[in-house]
Amino acid sequence: MSLRGLLRRVFTLGRGLSVGMPEDALGRDPIELFGDWFEAAAQASLAEPTAMTLATCTRDARPSARMVLLKSFDQRGFVFFTNYGSRKARELEENPRAALVFYWQPLLRQVRVEGTVERVGTAASRAYFASRPRGSRIGAWASRQSEALDSRAHLAARVRRLERQFSGAEVPLPEFWGGYRVIPQRIEFWQGRASRLHDRACFERDGAGWRSYWMYP
Hints:
The structure is a single chain. The chain is of the alpha+beta class. The protein has a single domain, classed as Pnp Oxidase, Chain A (Roll), CATH 2.30.110.10. 33% of the residues lie in helices and 33% in strands. It has 6 helices and 9 strands; from the N terminus they run ααββββαββαααβββ. Strands 1, 2, 3, 4, 5, 6, 7, 8 and 9 form a 9-stranded antiparallel β-sheet that branches. β5 and β6 form a beta hairpin. α5 crosses α6. The chain is elongated, with a radius of gyration of 20 Å. 24% of the residues are buried.
């Protein structure tokens, strides 16, 4: 970690414990506030500030959760990519609702997002897929994500076959791979404070805008 990143982390952590979230935080746009917090996490040299827990649920209310990486966000929502045959994708097709959790422990900050889910357009999936390293693109073709695997050797053989197939050519976007967008209906910001008297600011969708309120820790 760079000295600058360490100093920023210490400053943000100390400020959070002693001062917490400002009183006017509830007047902010929650996506813009998330952007500020995300930027602070990125500048604090955390190992993976884009890491988030994604929780999904089957049609009959059986939940599951896993870590994925946030690839973009804007006023429309939070985007990640996956194999459309994976368990998470199957559950999202059955029940298009999800929850996300970001936890930046060194900064004592957490953000929870709940909302509906939609697929992103093919053009956006293709653009992101093209930006990935070639090995990751081959890997996306090789992996039958969430299915049973006979052996690691079998996966390696699939990779070698695909490397030969796409030798000297671009690796195209698979039809079974792409992005999802979580469209937020509720966003909660949690800032750690001394004596566990944490700050919690909640934003809930209200028509075209948001209603906001503080919550007990």
